[in-house]
What we know:
Keywords: Dioxygenase, Iron, Metal-binding, Oxidoreductase. Residues 8-354 form the TauD/TfdA-like domain. It comes from Hyaloscypha hepaticicola. This is Clavaminate synthase-like protein. This protein has helices at residues 31-44, 57-66, 199-204, 208-216, 225-228, 299-310, and strands at 7-10, 19-22, 46-49, 93-94, 101-112, 115-120, 141-142, 161-168, 174-178, 186-190, 194-198, 218-221, 263-265, 267-269, 276-278, 285-289, 295-296, 320-322, 329-333, 337-341, 351-357. The chain is of the alpha+beta class. The strands form five sheets. Strands 1, 2, 3, 4, 5, 6, 8, 19 and 21 form a nine-stranded mixed sheet that branches. A four-stranded antiparallel sheet has the order 13-12-16-17. The mean pLDDT is 94.
Amino acid sequence: MAVKTLEVRPLNGPPQFGAEIFNVDLDNLNDADFETIRNTLYNYHIVVLKNQDGVSPKAQYEITKRFDPNCEGSYGHGKTLDAKRSVLHPDLKTIPHQPQVQVIGNGYYDEYEGLKNFTLKHPHHKVFHKNAISEEDDLDFTRFYRWHIDAALYALNPPKVTSLMAVKVPAGRRQTLRYDDGTGEEMDVPLGTTAFVSGQNMYDILSEEDKEFVRGAKVEYAPHPYVWMSPAKSRSDGLGMISGGLELPLSELPPVDESQIKILPMCWKNPVTGKLALQVHPSAIKAVHKPNGEVITDLKEARDLVHRLQRPAISPQYVYAHDWVEGDFVLFNNQGVTHSVVGAFSPEERRLFRQCNMASSEGVMGADGKLY
Length: 372
């Protein structure tokens, strides 16, 4: 059989990021083809490999690990000590024979890759946002559930790359995504889309004064952040939490090792292009360390500052809402994009995806070229 050359096609913007690659054989991926995929990923941030039906969880794990060959291969969120209180707990099921790969989606399944008689539930904003869309509008309208980076943000380094494989995609209806933040902004989106924004663009559109600030500022994340934030509620745009004093006190968290708390730069440097991305997980922040050494410990002040810096870049013209097709295999630069689950499903609308990411073997690179 003739070996086909990879065909790279940049996605038609706006927004100006993302690319599709055709003719990829993930089960027989040579070094040259992998290097094409890697360079495309770090230049375009999202790579959609088309027509990958039948790719195994093992092959998904192997290509994801290939971006970070020295990583230990442990799931990017680790083994949460107190999983049932974590906001991530309901959303994931682990493939028994490939524990780095998780299953996400919606609906009941008799069997899939060793999992039996299980029900998946697509995250709905009404369980996480302070104010929800009304029941009568629920299936026609949706929101960004939670803008985030895939990362434990405590003890483990943020994964370099996440892969998503579309096994089953519900047919065709669309929803209107509302920001509900007073701006009147909204978007037409496919059901169950994954929304992405570029951290590089998030940095590039800042004022020169704000660019200077974020190049030198750091974010301190809460220990066990997904347990810590669990009683709190999110803003309606999905971009961080409302400060109502509901976060769990340290005494109610799993044991905390102070040396494992993450203080990460606001800007992360692309390993191929050297360009900077504003990369902050807004829901998990506990404090902001300013370039002059001062620390903003008032939670509302820290959150409001980060929201002001990030919010312009999630306006509709900057959002890539992927229209999933069964067999799409998406790799994204987890250290260069922020993304969100989107969508409100009826119980009979079935969706099944596989997700893989692994804690990085090294810290993230800041604007100063140092690893954190």
